[in-house]
Write a structure and sequence with these properties.
By secondary structure, the protein is an alpha+beta fold. The chain has seven helices and nine strands.
Length: about 300
C-alpha cells in the first residue's frame, strides 16, 4: 500500500501525525473497449467544439452553467482562492454517539497509520475512542475538496470515513407507501418467525460475488480455447416467480418451509425450533462453533493484509 496523504490529527492541543491509505478496492474485472470489427482499442480524444483541435489536459478549465444558461469559467487559480480547511491537518470538531450517524451518510473509507517514531498520541486517541464508544467528527481536505468525516476505531487502528452532506442525500416520498394498509398481526407474527429462522451472526466470508467468479471462469475458458472467444452455452431456463402476492400469509408459510429445507446447508443458524422444519438447537450449536473456528482461523490473514 502507498499512502495518498500525510498530515496530523488536531485533537485539542495534541497533534497526531498520520499517513492516509485508501481502505477499499474494487474487485471487478477490468475491460478495454475495442472495435467489434477488428478488435482495435478505442481511444478518446479531447476535441474543442469551436476550433476542432485536440486540447491538452493542462489547457482545460472548468465551466459552470446556471439553470438560466449563464456561463462562468473558473481556472485553477480561482479554485485556490476558495476557503478550505488546512490541507495537512485533520481537526477534530466534536465527539458524537456512534449510533447517531445514519449509515446512508458514509462515503469513502481510509486507514490512518501513525507517522511518528513514538505513536503514543495515536494509541491514546484510538484507545479513548474505543473506550467511550463515540465517533469523532473531523474535517478532511483531499484533492482540494473539504469534507466532513467520521473517525473511529477498527481492529485497534484509526479509520476515517468521509460523510455526505445532508443536502447530498435525496428526500423521497412514495405515494404507494402512503396508501398502503398496515400489516395484520398474523402477518407480522409469521414475518418475525421467518426472520428468526434466517437469523445468524454476520460473517462476510460466508458470501461470494458469484458474478465475478463466473465471469473469471468464462474468461479462463476462452483463453484455454486458444481463440480468445467465449464458447456458446445453452441458455438456462429462467426460474418461475410468483405473480403479485394475493395471500401474504400463504406466501410467508411457503417461505418458512423453504428456509427450513435450506437449513441443512447453512452453518450456525439460529432458527430455534420454529415451524417450517428448521434445525435443532444441537445442530445449530455445532454449526455455530465450526463457523467461529473458521472465522478465528481467517482473522490473522485479514489483519496482516490491512486493506487495499
Amino acid at each position: 500500500m502507498r499512502s495518498i496523504w500525510k498530515g496530523s490529527i488536531a485533537f485539542g492541543l495534541v497533534n497526531v501525525p498520520v499517513k492516509v491509505y485508501t481502505a477499499t478496492e474494487d474487485h471487478d474485472i477490468r475491460f478495454h473497449q475495442v472495435h467489434a470489427k477488428d478488435g482495435g482499442r478505442i481511444k478518446y480524444d479531447r476535441v474543442c467544439t469551436v476550433c476542432g483541435q485536440s486540447v491538452k489536459f493542462a489547457d482545460i478549465d472548468k465551466q459552470y452553467e446556471s439553470p438560466e444558461g449563464e456561463k462562468v469559467v473558473l481556472t485553477d487559480d480561482d479554485f485556490a482562492k476558495l476557503p478550505v480547511a488546512e490541507k495537512h491537518e485533520i481537526p477534530v470538531l466534536q465527539f458524537v454517539p456512534s449510533d447517531q450517524i445514519d449509515p446512508i451518510l458514509y462515503d469513502k473509507t481510509y486507514y490512518l497509520e501513525p507517522d511518528s517514531t513514538t505513536p503514543k498520541a495515536y494509541v491514546l486517541l484510538a484507545a479513548t475512542l474505543e473506550r467511550i464508544d463515540r465517533t469523532a467528527l473531523v474535517h478532511f481536505t483531499l484533492r482540494q475538496k473539504t469534507r466532513l468525516a467520521a473517525m473511529r476505531v477498527r481492529d485497534g487502528m484509526l479509520v476515517l470515513q468521509t460523510l455526505l452532506w445532508p443536502d447530498e442525500v435525496r428526500s423521497v416520498s412514495f405515494e404507494s407507501l402512503e396508501e398502503a394498509k398496515a400489516p395484520r398481526p398474523q402477518e407480522i407474527k409469521m414475518a418475525e418467525t421467518l426472520v428468526e429462522s434466517m437469523s445468524d451472526d454476520f460473517d462476510p466470508d460466508q458470501f461470494t460475488d458469484e458474478y465475478q467468479v463466473e465471469l473469471q471462469r468464462l474468461l479462463e475458458e476462452a483463453i484455454a480455447s486458444g481463440d480468445g472467444k467465449v464458447a456458446e452455452r445453452a441458455a438456462e431456463p429462467a426460474e418461475e416467480s410468483d405473480a403479485e402476492v394475493v395471500d401474504l400469509v400463504a406466501a410467508l408459510q411457503r417461505s418458512l418451509e423453504a428456509s427450513g429445507a435450506r437449513g441443512g446447508e447453512k452453518s450456525g443458524g439460529r432458527g430455534g425450533g420454529k415451524s417450517g422444519g428448521t434445525k435443532s438447537t444441537g445442530e445449530k450449536s455445532s454449526g455455530a462453533a465450526k463457523a467461529r473456528k473458521t472465522t478465528q482461523r481467517k482473522t490473522p490473514q485479514k489483519r496482516t493484509r490491512k486493506g487495499a
